[in-house]
């Protein structure tokens, strides 16, 4: 990780750059990088592929597929969005986040209403790719999805080793020659 980026790495508008000293821009960038690194360490220490968090809710994703929604006595979900607030506006089965075989993540909207991923509308039954730092907006509630790429790569390597082992196994059969 580069803690002293080049000027080309700074994504600050010219208007803002005019009023902000160069040292302040670099300090802000370093603080953002430290916060990101700290979050990645926290996710890795939990053995998670990703983290899904909002204002009151933080869930470490340790499975390749998780259901988001409003938990009830009849319906169980992996991530209960009702804990964030405004539970009556959330579908019981709002969305499904799934890690694909290549390590990418997708979200499928299963709810009645549209949701937004990084400002892009996702209608019912529609699927969209998730990247690290994706902003997920569900019924006026905002969540962030962060991927731990190291854990995902480790999981994929383990899965490919297991699959390789399965394909190379063979059994000897004792046959008598007559």
From TrEMBL:
One of its GO terms (molecular function) is G-quadruplex RNA binding. Pfam families: FHA (PF00498). One of its GO terms (biological process) is positive regulation of transcription by RNA polymerase II. Residues 66-122 form the FHA domain. CDD domains: FHA_MCRS1 (cd22687). One of its GO terms (cellular component) is MLL1 complex. InterPro entries: FHA_dom, MCRS1, SMAD_FHA_dom_sf. This is FHA domain-containing protein. It comes from Rubroshorea leprosula.
């Amino acid at each position: 990780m580069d803690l002293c980026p080049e000027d080309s790495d700074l994504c600050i508008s010219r208007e803002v750059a005019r009023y902000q000293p160069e040292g302040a821009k670099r300090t802000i960038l370093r603080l953002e990088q430290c916060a990101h690194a700290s979050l990645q360490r926290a996710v890795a220490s939990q053995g998670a592929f990703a983290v899904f968090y909002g204002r009151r809710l933080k869930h470490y994703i340790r499975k390749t597929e998780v259901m988001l929604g409003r938990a009830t006595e009849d319906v169980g979900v992996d991530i209960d969005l009702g804990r964030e607030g405004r539970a009556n506006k959330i579908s019981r089965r709002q969305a499904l986040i799934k890690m694909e075989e290549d390590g990418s993540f997708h979200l499928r909207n299963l709810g009645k209403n549209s949701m937004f991923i990084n400002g892009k509308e996702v209608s019912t039954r529609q699927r969209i790719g998730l990247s690290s730092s994706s902003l997920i907006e569900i019924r006026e509630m905002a969540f962030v999805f962060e991927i731990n790429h190291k854990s995902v790569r480790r999981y994929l390597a383990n899965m490919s080793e297991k699959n390789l082992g399965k394909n190379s196994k063979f059994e000897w059969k004792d046959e008598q020659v007559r």
